[in-house]
Design goal:
With 226 residues, the chain is α+β, with helices and mostly antiparallel strands. It is built from six helices and ten strands; from the N terminus they run H-H-H-H-H-E-E-E-H-E-E-E-E-E-E-E.
Length: 226
């Protein structure tokens, strides 16, 4: 096994219930195949930075063995939390409608913070851009039922600003916020729709609409993953 992978496993083993290839893959939001590749060829720089953010080990130490095992290496990104700490996620005053849209505040207004365990984030939120980009936002309306309901709190990855995969997104248009499902059609255009079968409206993004991608909904705070 590559030395950098051994160091990664050593760091991950300090976290509760994290042991083995599959557990490390879940923690870092990586595929087991990626972890297997790291075992043979070495941990990638991006993987080491993820480990620094989610585990608290030094990315430079993972890659080279130099320096101390813990703490942030000079010149790397800020860690949102240590291995035993919690990630503080802002809860925004902005709310997004699942129907006709709600007025967008001119800037993010914080009304508090909710804390999440780094282990839960790594185990649950696969493909997350970075924990620093997590935001909580309220949704209202019925056009996305039964996926989520009026008043549900949604966890959004605000680092997602492009439509690369089908999913539920927070969209900005006409100075209003919307929560809609977006999928790519065979002709390459993107289709915006609601999950409620009684709502028939479907819009197609053909390059003529000024729509901003403000984030991807990755968790409904009622225990149901989407």
């Amino acid at each position: 096994m590559h030395d950098s992978a051994l160091r990664l496993y050593q760091a991950a083993s300090q976290m509760k219930d994290v042991s083995g290839q599959s557990a490390v893959a879940r923690l870092l939001g990586e595929s087991p195949q990626n972890i297997k590749n790291w075992e043979m060829r070495g941990v990638s720089k991006a993987g080491a930075l993820k480990a620094e953010e989610l585990i608290g080990c030094s990315a430079a130490w993972v890659l080279t063995g130099d320096g101390q095992a813990t703490g942030r290496a000079k010149g790397t990104r800020r860690m949102p939390a240590s291995a035993s700490g919690a990630v503080s996620v802002p809860r925004l005053a902005n709310a997004a409608s699942m129907g006709g849209g709600s007025d967008m505040a001119p800037e993010d207004v914080l009304v508090g913070n909710l804390t999440l365990s780094p282990a839960w984030i790594g185990r649950t939120l696969r493909g997350l851009s970075t924990p620093d980009n997590l935001r909580f936002i309220h949704a209202y309306g019925d056009s996305m039922e039964p996926t989520f309901l009026d008043g549900d709190v949604l966890l959004v990855d605000a680092g997602v600003r492009t439509l690369e995969v089908d999913g539920v997104y927070v969209l900005g248009a006409q100075n209003r916020l919307f929560i809609k499902r977006v999928r790519q059609r065979l002709d390459g255009a993107y289709e915006i729709s609601s999950d409620n079968p009684t709502v028939k409206t479907v819009d197609v993004l053909d390059g003529q609409h000024a729509v901003e991608i403000l984030g991807k909904v990755i968790w409904i705070w009622n225990g149901r993953k989407i």
